[in-house]
Design brief:
It is built from eight helices and five strands. The protein is mainly α. The strands form two sheets. The protein has a three-stranded parallel sheet. It has a two-stranded parallel ribbon with strand order 1-2.
Length: 254
């Protein structure tokens, strides 16, 4: 992947784990962030998560195609039944970021680290566990985290995304108070037919214009698709950005 990206002059953000049970299950929970990540080798894994991160980061520490490392996509320290003990979750995520992010910095002084925990509201209509309200600012201040992240879904006609705090605007304020930059590393808008591609490109353009002006330092369209794939009712394929789409042209204007 890095070799192919380098041939096109692109950069890659390797995401070292997923919060959910797909890609690298099991789903992460409070116990995982407290100790499982460093003490347990899960089925299908060869080593603990912490050892895996140390190995991968050491291997690619000098590779300029790596833009930064991200510890966990959409990480949150929920209880094993999906509920949230916010103080315990914040404590676990903060210790995890300090430990793993600090280890990455020690192994690889060439690249930044993003913890991957988000501000705002999840798709379940609740805040991310361990980063609720002002706890997000506390967590992002971890010395193991260099770059804040935000994911913008569900508000295609609102350039700044969700208009109700905690949202992108409040996340920018909190990250800047910590002295950290913030990126929108996933922004997705449905297009359920070819007729929706040009309007979607215009909505992305409005978002990028507003969000960069507000202080965001990077945007990533979600997600690449080799061919158009429209599904009705709306589902993940509707986010697909395929070759030749007008949304790709938006990237070159910022």
């Amino acid at each position: 992947v890095l070799s192919i990206a380098a041939s096109y002059g692109d950069r890659v953000i390797p995401v070292l784990a997923n919060q959910y049970a797909y890609c690298d299950g099991p789903a992460k929970d409070l116990a995982w962030y407290q100790s499982g990540y460093k003490n347990t080798v899960y089925p299908g894994d060869a080593v603990t998560y912490r050892q895996y991160v140390a190995d991968v980061v050491a291997r690619y520490a000098d590779n300029p195609t790596v833009a930064m490392w991200q510890l966990v996509n959409e990480g949150e320290a929920v209880n094993d039944n999906g509920t949230c003990n916010e103080p315990a979750a914040l404590s676990a995520l903060l210790a995890f970021s300090n430990d793993v992010g600090g280890m990455v910095h020690g192994v690889d002084p060439n690249h930044l680290v993003s913890s991957g925990t988000l501000a705002g509201w999840s798709g379940a209509g609740i805040q991310w566990c361990g980063a609720q309200n002002a706890d997000y600012q506390t967590l992002m201040a971890s010395p193991g985290n260099d770059v804040c992240d935000f994911h913008d879904y569900g508000y295609p006609t609102d350039p700044m995304g969700n208009p109700s705090a905690p949202d992108l605007a409040s996340a920018i304020t909190m990250c800047h108070a910590d002295g950290k930059p913030i990126m929108v590393a996933e922004t997705g808008i449905y297009a359920t037919s070819a007729a929706g591609l040009a309007p979607r490109a215009a909505e992305f353009s409005a978002k990028f214009s507003a969000q960069f002006q507000a202080g965001v330092v990077g945007e990533l369209l979600w997600c690449w698709a080799n061919i158009p794939d429209y599904v009705v009712p709306a589902a993940d394929p509707d986010y697909g950005i395929a070759p030749g789409e007008p949304a790709l042209g938006v990237l070159g204007t910022f």
